[in-house]
Amino acid sequence: MSTKAGNFKNPFSRPWMTETGAAAAAGGAGSVGLKGVVAGGITGGIEICITFPTEYVKTQLQLDEKGGTKKYTGIIDCVKKTVKGHGFFGLYRGLSVLLYGSIPKSAVRFGVFEQAKLYMVTDNGTLTTTGKLACGLAAGVAEAVFAVTPMETVKVKFINDMRMEKPRFKGFFHGVKMIVREEGIGGVYKGVTATIMKQGSNQAIRFFVMESLRDWYKGGDRDKPVPKYIVGLFGGVAGAASVFGNTPIDVVKTRMQGLEAAKYRSTWDCFIKTWKHEGPLAFYKGTVPRLSRVVFDVAITFTIYDSIMDVFNYVWK
C-alpha cells in the first residue's frame, strides 16, 4: 500500500511550480495572486501621481465637441488656458478621484492576471498566444467591473464640472453624493459596456505584447532575467499598441460618462451620433496626449510592478 502511495503521481501536478521560474519565484500558487494584488495597488498609486496631467488634457480634449461650446484649439491651448484659469495645480484637478480608483484598479488587474496565468500556463511554464490574450482580457474585464467604471465616471464628471462657469462639486465625496442623489447608483456605472470593451481590449493587447516580448528576449530560457530598462521599453511598446487599437472605444466611453451622457441612449447610440455629427476623426480625439501618457504610463507601470515583485519574492516567501 505504501509502495503505491509512494509511486502515486498527481495528474494535475505542475512541475514548474516546484522548480525555478516565474511562478516558483513568486512563492507558489497560493501567494501569487495576493502578491499581484498588493504589488499592483502600490504600483497604481505611484503611477497615477506621475501621469495625471496628460490624462486631464486628454479628457478635456475628448469632451470638447465641435460647435459654439468648443473651448480648446489643441493640447498646448488646453494646458495654457487651464493654468491661466486655475493655476498649475488645475492640471491635477480630479487627481484624488483617480487616485482612489487607480490603486484598486491596478490591484485587481495584476492580481487577476497572475491568478489566471496559473491556470493558463503550459507545461514549460509559458503562455500560448491564446493564453496571453485570455489572461489579459480577464484582467481588463475584472478591473472594468470592480474599479474602473465607477471611478472613471466620477473622474470625468468632475473634470466636466470644472468646465462650467460655476462648478457644483466641492470635493470628491460631495461630488459622489450629488451624482448618486441625482442619478442613483447607476449614475456611477454609466458607460459600463464601453468600459469593459476598452479595458478588456486594453489589457489583452498590453499583456499579449508584453509577455510575447519577454518570451522573445528570454529565447526559451525561463530563468533569464530581463533588465528593468528593457521591461520599461517593452511596456512602452505594449502601451502604444493598445492606444492605436482602442482609442475609438475610449472616446465613446468618455462621452458616455460625461455630464451630457443623458443625450445618448446607449453606447451604440453614442457611437452613431458622434460619427454622424463629427465624422470618423472624432474617434481619435486626444490620441496624441493619450499616446504620450499611455506609453510612459505602461512603461513605468510594468517597471515599478516588476521591481516591487522582485522585492516581494525576496522577503515574502
From TrEMBL:
Solcar repeats lie at residues 31-119, 130-216, 226-311. GO terms for biological process: mitochondrial citrate transmembrane transport. It comes from Papilio xuthus. Keywords: Membrane, Mitochondrion, Repeat, Transmembrane, Transmembrane helix, Transport. PANTHER family: SUCCINATE/FUMARATE MITOCHONDRIAL TRANSPORTER-RELATED, TRICARBOXYLATE TRANSPORT PROTEIN, MITOCHONDRIAL. Its main location: mitochondrion. GO terms for molecular function: citrate secondary active transmembrane transporter activity. It holds the Pfam family Mito_carr. The gene is LOC106117927. One of its GO terms (cellular component) is mitochondrial membrane. This is Citrate transport protein. Belongs to the mitochondrial carrier (TC 2.A.29) family. It is a multi-pass membrane protein. It is found in: Mitochondrion membrane.
